Amino acid sequence: MAVLTGAGISAESGVPTFRGKGGLWRSYRSQDLATPEAFAANPSLVWEFYNWRRSLIAVVDCNPAHRALAQLETKVPHFTLISQNVDGLHLRAGSKNLLEIHGNIWKVRCTKCGSITANYTPDLGTSPHCHRCAGLLRPHVVWFGESLDYKLLQSAFDASRTCDVMLVIGTSAVVQPSASFPVEAKSRGAMVAEINLEPTPLSSLADMTIPGKVGDIVPRLVENWS
Ligand code: OAD
């Protein structure tokens, strides 16, 4: 089984989505701030934005949908969770075989030596530096225009191409390469089921679309999984 999640699975934890009403993009200039160019031009401003997002996420918790997926993983022989989310809530819920393909907002990466460390202090200040080499740190998340980690991407495509079932949960399915994972799964004969509040470009391709809130649907689906 492969599962692809997007911001919708964390919405009920209080983490704003990107494109929905009240989404991050509606109210904040994410596209201008989450880019290598913005960071090069004004790293302090970008850190202000990420410190704000870290402080938002620091006070929320995983919800029944996150926890249900962690439980489902124990019921299925081969399980891969591919998440576009950077909030770390799947890890907090106990998911093990997790591919955080857009990174993790709780990790920082040194722009000089490349070392990656987890740091759960919500506010890292506007110019945090590496303990090893004093290089400037950046959030270990994928920015617009950046490519994904090759190994993570390969693993995600492998899981998509070998699964029998793919659940696509809480994503608008418009961002690549994630939007291709269900297409790959379907082309290899997998059953694709979508769980979302509303239809997406994937809905016509999916074998099943289950309309509704992740917090209602995912726990019930896992309860009845045998
Ligand atoms: P979006 O904000 O684009 O889409 C969220 C999806 O979740 C929408 O289809 C909503 O209908 C659905 N949704 C919201 N609340 C829900 C709920 N309670 N139950 C069920 N469905 C719900 O977020 P993503 O699809 O994750 O990339 O966006 C993909 C990527 O776009 C993000 O990872 C981000 C952005 O560029 C990076 O940051 C690199």
Count of individual domains: 1
From the spread of the alpha carbons, the general shape counts as globular
Q: Can you tell me the CATH superfamily?
A: TPP-binding domain
| Biggest pleated-sheet summary | 6 strands, parallel
CATH architecture: 3-Layer(aba) Sandwich
- What is the number of E strands? 9
Which percent range fits the helix content? 25-40%
**Secondary-structure element series:** EHHHHHHEHEEEEHEHEEH
Assembly level: single chain
What is the terminal separation in angstroms?
A: 13 Å
Low-confidence runs:
none
Number of helices: 10
Strand order of the largest sheet: 3-2-1-7-8-9
The CATH topology label is Rossmann fold
The small molecules bound here are: 2'-O-acetyl adenosine-5-diphosphoribose
Strand-residue proportion: 15-25%
What structural class is derived from the secondary structure elements?
Answer: alpha/beta
Output the CATH class name. Alpha Beta
